[in-house]
Automatic annotation (TrEMBL):
Entry protein name: Uncharacterized protein
Domain of life: Bacteria
The entry's keywords: Membrane, Transmembrane, Transmembrane helix
Chain segments annotated as transmembrane: 7-25, 37-56, 68-89, 109-130, 142-163
InterPro entries, A to Z: Quinoprotein_ADH-like_sf, WD40/YVTN_repeat-like_dom_sf
Organism: Nocardiopsis flavescens
Length: 538
């Protein structure tokens, strides 16, 4: 290689030593304390000694070149071996092992760059031949600079290139339509999964450092937004997975440092960052609690409480405050009917929260009434009223109190044991049969039965009703497989298709099931929460 190779090698060693010193400074993010860190700094120390012998008085005079070459060859082999063994795969998501946890560290990557540069620089010195003449040629600074500059530039680019401040891609539009295919998804770098929700095109995954929206049919990424790992900034690796609050609501995804104003607010459909100021999660919770209490006060002021009557707290349903009034001698101080067989006069009352005026009232006599706001699945939300005494429930319009969703009177005519859907688009009710089995019935808004299912071998107490998913043409129902009932225990997912067909979609360690038009996924997990997704297609 001659003198040019020798100069470039010295420059590489000088750059490696300088980068190692910068990495070890107190204000640099830490590289860790493992043996690989000490090995890296040991190689850097060897580079410093070799550089001293190469550029010292004897080296400049051309003396001891043979010994320097031998030591350079040994250091090149040592540094290459250390570089191969200590490659920081767990610091880079792209190279992390499948079962490993990514703990990004700019310092660890920079230290590896030092080791690699030392191996290359020592190799250049080992291969450099003896000077052609009796006196060593005059050295130009171009050679050392050509070696040192790439090392320093590489070290400077580690942060912005490998650990960007934000990893953000925005949806280019709706995913192309196509048949659902089998796919699985795991969080990148084993980052913590906080929650998995139904998004506009598929699952919306809230991570410990951001969010990812997936196409439910193909498993492809629609948009992603991820903040930098705490270990790449001032937070330190100890706060990994716990430094961000991530939540979704109102068509938006919020990301914030703990209990602080959101650092970013995204549109849940496109992933685009929204401008403006938004309250933090604690402020949102406080406002929701205040709104709840204010709604109860408004409802109590608007609804009279005659002697012998009791007003239950009003609940907001689709912008209307709905509450129950009961009048009888059998109420205790808490408004609980404690005398069996006493028939009371009940009224379900809707109140306009803005005007504080009564909108509608529905009255009847009974003994054990209840009303339940059921989350809407496809249509507008309703209030489901069970008047008691075995009367079939009815779905009421919260704005007018009118009956808009009749419950079928066919067998079983008794009230359902659970509701998976009750809105203006229809009803999905679950019943426990006399032998402990399971009966699921779907009806149209006019009360006509669309489908009825009784899955063979499925017990009512084994159905995970809280994890069921309803789409316009099917019901996805997980049922525990075996005796386990803890989160993540194996469940068999059944697809109840319109027309009465029951499809077995296999056994999965699922904690939830999500579905939408053209897609369905099992949310895999354990007692600590979700860990991944698996398509239920095929």
């Amino acid at each position: 290689m001659g003198e040019a190779g020798r100069s470039a090698g010295a420059g590489l060693l000088a750059g490696a030593v300088a980068l190692a010193v910068l990495t070890a400074l107190p204000w640099s993010d830490r590289a860790g304390t493992g043996w690989e860190v000490w090995a890296g700094f040991g190689v850097a120390a060897g580079a410093c000694l070799l550089l001293f012998h190469t550029c010292g008085p004897r080296g400049r005079a051309g003396q001891g070149r043979a010994g320097v070459r031998r030591w350079a060859g040994a250091l090149a082999l040592l540094a290459a071996a250390v570089a191969a063994v200590t490659f920081p795969a767990d610091s880079l998501e792209a190279f992390a092992p499948a079962e490993g946890l990514v703990v990004p560290s700019r310092a660890a990557v920079r230290l590896w760059v030092c080791v690699a540069a030392t191996a290359l620089g020592a190799l250049f010195l080992a291969l450099a031949g003896a000077p052609a003449g009796p006196r060593p040629p005059r050295r130009s600074p171009a050679g050392p600079l050509a070696g040192a500059l790439p090392v320093l530039v590489a070290g400077a680019l580690v942060g912005p290139a490998l650990f960007p401040a934000e990893r953000h891609t925005v949806a280019a539009g709706a995913p192309p339509a196509g048949d659902a295919v089998a796919w699985e998804w795991e969080p990148p770098g084993r980052v913590a999964v906080r929650e998995v929700l139904s998004g506009p095109y598929g699952p919306l995954v809230l991570l410990g450092d951001g969010a990812v929206a997936l196409d439910g049919a193909s498993g492809g990424t629609v948009w992603t937004y991820r903040r930098p790992h705490p270990g790449t900034g001032g937070g330190g690796v100890g706060s990994w997975g716990d430094a961000m609050e991530v939540w979704s609501g109102g068509g938006r995804v919020h990301l914030a440092e703990r209990s602080e104003e959101p650092a970013a607010v995204l549109d849940a459909v496109t992933g685009a960052r929204l401008a403006g100021r938004f309250p933090g999660r604690e402020a949102v919770r406080a406002a929701a609690e205040e709104r709840l209490e204010e709604g109860r006060r408004i409802w109590r002021r608007a609804v009279e409480e005659p002697p012998g009557c009791h007003r239950g707290p009003g609940r907001e349903v689709a912008g209307v405050l709905v509450g129950l009034v009961g009048c009888a001698d059998g109420f205790d101080d808490l408004g609980v009917l404690v005398v069996d067989g006493v028939r009371a006069r009940f009224s379900l009352v809707g109140v306009d929260p803005d005007r504080g005026r009564e909108l509608w009232r529905r009255e009847w006599e009974g003994s054990r009434p209840s009303f339940t706001p059921v989350a809407a699945v496809q249509g507008d939300p309703l209030v489901v009223l069970e008047a008691g005494d075995g009367e079939p429930p009815v779905g009421l319009d919260p704005a007018t109190g009118e009956e808009v969703l009749p419950f079928p009177g066919e067998e079983p005519s008794r009230p359902p044991d659970a509701l998976l859907q009750a809105d203006t688009a229809g009803l999905v009710a679950v019943f426990e049969t006399g032998d402990g089995g399971l009966l699921v019935r779907r009806s149209a808004p006019d009360g006509g039965i669309v489908s009825r299912w009784r899955p063979e071998g499925a017990a009512f107490d084994g159905a995970v009703l809280a994890a069921a998913a309803v789409t316009p043409d099917a019901v996805f129902l997980p049922v525990y497989e075996g005796g386990g009932r803890e989160p993540g225990a194996p469940v068999r997912v059944l697809r109840l298709a319109d027309g009465g067909a029951v499809d077995d979609l296999g056994v999965h360690p699922a904690v939830d099931v999500l579905a939408g038009p053209g897609w369905a996924v099992a949310v895999l997990g354990d007692g600590y929460g979700p860990t991944g997704l698996r398509s239920l297609a095929g």
